[in-house]
Amino acid sequence: MMKAIVIYNPISGKGAGEFVASVISKSELNKKFELTFSQTNYNGHAKEIAIMALENGIRYIIAVGGDGTINEIGSVLKNTNAVMGIIPIGSGNGLAKHLGMSTRIETAINQLADAKESKIDTLTINNRFAINVSGFGFDGYVAYRFNHHGKRGISTYTKIGLTEYFKYPIQEFQLTIDDKTTIVKKHMLVIANASQFGNSAIIAPSADLTDGRLELVAVELPPVLHLAAILLKLFSGKLKDNRFIQTYKCNSFTATSKSVVHLHIDGESMEPVNKIQVKIEPLSLNILIP
């Protein structure tokens, strides 16, 4: 029987991690794999556990948690023969939803039991691993506020976003996309490998995890009268390029600003910087897809 380790974040999903681990131990997944379980206790712990699992010859690593847990584990498994599975119990679950994983725990477990192995693209942002959607500008600031807020969940994220949306300054960026350079003034630069932030907010509807291309979505600050229509399209998956949004498919890009700008990678706030260098890593991660 194939060996697998379940790495679970006990605080994800309002403390659902422990429950998920107990459900897995009684599921079809437990019949497919010889399972061991390991709980994360601090930031970076999932990465450490994944490294030890590889050293012990375990090929299948199942991430139970949110985008942060997935990012940590994926960064270890990149360019190895190991395979990641996902049971999403985070705040947004953007990558899992793009892959077609259910956010119902029992359904997601059954999906993994029948899943197929596939390869997907990943990204590097200033030499850091990224797998889903990241941002430079306003959404980086929202991630910063959210990560430092005492209360998690979509309601907190939404409240922060609506409160700060018109306060956050427009930034001037020098963009070099592949080999072409231009100057733009934008509210945020969204870096999309997959299609959505999470919670069905689909910022890059045409994003493809297997095409060897990333999507840079450059977003202006629209007048308030246009905001409702844009949000409707965002949450219905019908967002298209218009005079406020421009999407560039590319292999790499560099963005430079005169002042430091907030950055998040897969929802995790980073130190503000004035330059990011982003490139695609084609088909660099093995993953279980339903």
Contiguous runs where pLDDT drops below 50 for at least 5 residues? none
Mean pLDDT: 91
How many DSSP E strands?
16
Question: So what's the overall shape?
Answer: globular
What is the number of independent domains?
Answer: 2
Largest sheet: 10 strands, mixed
At CATH level 3, the topology of the largest domain is Tumour Suppressor Smad4
**Between the first and last Cα atoms, what is the distance in angstroms?**
21 Å
Evaluate the radius of gyration.
19 Å
User: How much helix is in the residues?
Assistant: 25-40%
CATH level-two architecture of the largest domain: Sandwich
CATH class of the largest domain equals Mainly Beta
Beta-strand content bin: 35-45%
SSE string: EHHHEHEHEHHEEEHHEEEEHEEEEE
Note the total helix count. Answer: 10
Structural class: alpha+beta
Description:
The protein is α+β, with helices and mostly antiparallel strands. The chain has 2 domains: 2-114, Rossmann fold, CATH 3.40.50.10330; 128-282, Tumour Suppressor Smad4 (Sandwich), CATH 2.60.200. It contains 10 helices and 16 strands. The strands form 2 sheets. Strands 1, 2, 3, 4, 5, 6, 8, 9, 13 and 16 form a 10-stranded mixed sheet that branches. Strand 14 and strand 15 form a beta hairpin. Helix 8 crosses helix 9. The longest helix is centred in the C-terminal third of the chain and has 13 residues, at 224-236. 44% of the residues are buried. The model has no long low-confidence stretch (mean pLDDT 91).
